[in-house]
Automatic annotation (TrEMBL):
Transmembrane segments: none annotated. This is Nucleoside-diphosphate-sugar epimerase. Pfam families: Epimerase. InterPro entries: Epimerase_deHydtase, Lipid_A_modif_metabolic_enz, NAD(P)-bd_dom_sf. Residues 1-136 form the NAD-dependent epimerase/dehydratase domain. It comes from Photobacterium gaetbulicola Gung47.
Amino acid sequence: METNCKATLRLFRDAVEHGVSRFVFVSSIGVNGNVTQGAPFTEQLQPNPVSDYAISKYEAEQQLVSAAKESAIELVIVRPALVYGKNAPGNIARLAKLTSALPLLPFGLVDNRKSFISLKNLVSLLVLCVSHPAAANQVFLAADTETISTKQLIDTLANVAGRKVIQVPVPVGLMRSVARLLGKGALASQLLDDLVVDNTKARERLGWKPEEDLQSTLE
């Protein structure tokens, strides 16, 4: 909260004081939630942050919106999906290490759908959000257009590393149960559940087009 919310609000107030005309806040898709069921996330859906990180980002969004109403500054909020690129941290880095270390992984039956966004695609959207007139006072969800399953992601990471990984067909329900017993239920959700993001608003309102596709960029 100190960094994601309080410091952000202080920076916003400094921006207003120094005559900045537009403030672009990079939030998180976690503000919408951590799982989609059937329909993808859109800007119209009610936020449902679950993790402490996402809650702090949503609190920052709300306070920025309130502060922006009392000033002449334009506010743009961008909620990106998981960002990937060279030396990407987080879950992609963990999966890359797993594919390099283990010849067998238990994701053979995982057929979920995940949205990601490449660093280059995110930057191109942020550039538009800085300057495009139609971006003012809007919220945009940021993601590549394609989705990928955890199984496909691991296969791709293994191919990049020049390794052969056998994906063992372990039942998804069994993996969830074991993860909960080990206190890793949140991690299991990240690996096994759907999280699909609809980027239509950014494409139609700003003319944004993701230049990189997920598969080739991962490779």
